[in-house]
Amino acid sequence: MNHPELDMAAMVERLEALRRELLADSESSRDARDTVVLDQTSVGRLSRMDALQGQAMAKAEEERRQLALKRIAAAFQRIERGEYGECIECGEWIGRARLEWDPLALKCIDCAD
C-alpha cells in the first residue's frame, strides 16, 4: 500500500512533470555538452579554458539530471509495487511533508541522518 496520507494521483502528476522538465532541460543543453571546437588562431587561451569549463559544467549537470531521471523511474516502480513513501531503511512511512517537498526521498528523516 502506498503512503496513506498522500494524494497518489497528484504525486504521479508531479513526478511526470519533473521528468518532462528534466528531459526538456537535457535537450536544451545538448549543445553546451558537445565537443568544444575553437579556432586556435583567433581565440585566446582564456577563452578556450572558459569554453572547456562551461562544457565540463554542462556535462556534470547532465549527469545530475540523468541520476534524477533514474530516481523518478524508481519512484514509479515503488508506486506500482505499492511501496511509495516507505522508508527503505526502517520500513516506516516517510513524513508527508518530506515527500511533498522531495517526492524522490527514499528515507524517513530519522534514517536520513
TrEMBL record:
A zinc finger (dksA C4-type) spans 87-111. The keyword Zinc applies. This is TraR/DksA family transcriptional regulator. SUPFAM superfamilies: Glucocorticoid receptor-like (DNA-binding domain) (SSF57716). InterPro entries: Znf_DskA_TraR. It comes from the Bacteria. Keywords: Metal-binding, Zinc, Zinc-finger. Residues 82-112 form the Zinc finger DksA/TraR C4-type domain.
